Amino acid sequence: MATTRGRDAGPRAAVKSLRAALTEEGIVLPSLGVDVAHPDLNLVELGRVRADVAERLADALGRGSRA
Q1: pLDDT of 2-48, one tens digit each?
Q2: Verdict on whether the full-model pTM lies above 0.85
Q3: Beta strands in 1-67 (DSSP E)
Q4: Which residues contact 36 (CB under 8 A, 6 or more apart)?
Q5: Does residue 34 come out as left (phi exceeding 0), alpha (psi in the -120 to 50 range) or beta?
Q6: Nearest 10 degrees: Cα torsion 65, 17, 48, 43
Q7: DSSP 8-state code for residue 39
Q8: What's the confidence (pLDDT) of residue 65?
Q9: Taking the mean position of all CA atoms in its chain, how far away is CA 15?
Q10: What is the pLDDT of residues 46-63, one digit of tens each?
Q11: 23-35-29 Cα angle (round to 5)
């Protein structure tokens, strides 16, 4: 999976990259999207998730940091 990293990454590219990575882990963030209220800040809206989804996300991040 190709990723876009760094300060020059646009929010749409970041959302696409994050959604793809989460999908590989079987994780869905229903509110994941571009923050359209502040387009000049290049913000990504992660939204709210259930506790079990947050735990799965934490587990996936932990596995990635150990790799």
Answers
A1: 444 555 679 999 999 999 999 999 999 999 999 999 989 999 999 99
A2: no
A3: 33-34, 44-45
A4: none
A5: beta
A6: 110
A7: G
A8: 74
A9: 6
A10: 999 999 999 999 999 998
A11: 25
